[in-house]
């Protein structure tokens, strides 16, 4: 029997562990419901009930300028000072961005005046101890997402238009983001002292049907930044996970060229993301993480539908290794408890090599 760490890292390196490793992302409401269902008090105990190998995240303590509470009850939150509020969708709540600090900026002088974040706003001194607290688990740390961070500052609509209409503003903002993330990542990895196994160099370029931006825009603006951070991770002996929802097939060859190790979340219902094609064309280069459909099957299917979905994922993406089974994003509160249990019980029972 492998440990969870051995199982995850073997699959992440496209090898074949003793069984397909299991991971989970879920909302707080789902976590609390599962804890109550199983009658346990800790997430670790919950992982045991679901047979999870669970990649564990570590992070520094934020010690920078505090968030700003506005008169209407919304907040401006660091490090990008977007305005957020909690929105209740009936079955669950999310903290959503409703305002962007630099959305209306039109000059480089306005950008210069912005309080750009510093790695000094974070205390990295506990990173190694956090890693040591999970000796049997794969450790993930540091998150670099230039397009995502740009959209925290400009909003998605303006951020996308900037790539074409405002090259000077785009170059300035991405330069500032890169400078901050570079210092942050270097301090993070140094503090981990070789005990961080996986990092995210990531973004969200995909929609339900295609890329949100052109492949040319991705290659001009974001691919060079990602290369810088992927090379840094590999120089520190760290594997790279790239999270990207939706239909991103046009840039998968770019991600392989950059050296991405793990691709998440495999939204296989989207055009070009069919599992058999992904495994055939990219299985020698990428470990696949996720894939269990949580738009239709997990929330609205029967337990037998879920078991069928899990078997399809394991037989296709999991053939000869290189697969970590998980939902294709956070499990939402609309997903019945019995379906979540069916997913992991089926994978546990039938996922042995």
- Radius of gyration computed on alpha carbons: 20 Å
Overall number of strands: 13
Helix content: 40-55%
Task: Let me know the largest β-sheet.
Answer: 7 strands, parallel
Point out poorly predicted stretches. none
SSE string: HHHEEEEEEHEHEHHHEHEHEHEHHEH
What does this structure look like?
- With 353 residues, the protein is of the alpha/beta class.
- The protein has a single domain (4-63, 103-350), classed as TIM Barrel.
- It has helices at 4-12, 28-38, 43-49, 108-112, 127-132, 146-154, 156-165, 167-192, 215-235, 252-258, 275-282, 297-300, 303-316, 337-350, and strands at residues 56-58, 61-62, 68-69, 75-77, 82-88, 93-99, 122-123, 139-144, 198-201, 239-243, 262-264, 287-292, 323-327.
- The protein has a seven-stranded parallel sheet, with helices on both faces.
- The model has no long low-confidence stretch (mean pLDDT 97).
